[in-house]
Amino acid sequence: xxxxxxxxxxxxxxxxxxxxxxxxxxxxxxxxxxxxxxxxxxxxxxxxxxxxxxxxxxxxxxxxxxxxxxxxxxxxxxxxxxxxxxxxxxxxxxxxxxxxxxxxxxxxxxxxxxxxxxxxxxxxxxxxxxxxxxxxxxxxxxxxxxxxxxxxxxxxxxxxxxxxxxxxxxxxxxxxxxxxxxxxxxxxxxxxxxxxxxxxxxxxxxxxxxxxxxxxxxxxxxxxxxxxxxxxxxxxxxxxxxxxxxxxxxxxx
Length: 253
Known about the structure:
- The protein is α/β, with parallel strands linked by helices.
- The chain folds into two domains: 3-66; 79-252, no CATH class.
- 45% of the residues lie in helices and 12% in strands.
- The protein has ten helices and nine strands.
- The strands form three sheets. It has a four-stranded mixed beta sheet, with helices on one face.
- The longest helix has 17 residues, at 37-53.
- The chain is elongated, with a radius of gyration of 22 Å.
- The protein starts with a helix and ends in a 10-residue tail after the last helix.
């Protein structure tokens, strides 16, 4: 691999937000002259592989890459989250779960909520037993609350924890000591669960989407696959096209 090709590639696309595999092939073909398609594919694959390993090229969906790296989103875990995790895992060490705090969204918003709540998701069969387990450990817990309960009780209570069923094949980050949702799951959930996240709708929902997309690495395939699991893919795509991303972007094709 000619190192000059790599330098030329990075220089040529340094101002681009995204680059597709077809654009990389076109660039390579122009720089080295026409070669057999199989050879061109192999060389393009090698270029992509090398730049990814160096941290210069970042895949964001199949055949679409970003040259300018954004940060990976990570969630903070406070003392209550650690207590919930420890309590749950002592009883259910092998059961799927996810936990996070809505406070992580406040950095993206203009209007700051007065309080925050926690979302704990686990498998359907143990929702009720999890509710009693956490309640017995003096955790302020609510199971599958409706909007009325949220507005009357949860919004005004201290450190409320909402327990709900986890969607199968939810995108989770299990690299830390506890399972937390990825940013893609969070964005889809606040879009879908409007009763729970009623304070995060309207202009604030748009602010959250814009600011996360602007500052953090988003895996579009992961986001849309999860939206499809929640039967909201078409609505999410429409929302992204209307508010977040150019409708002609290859990200949405």
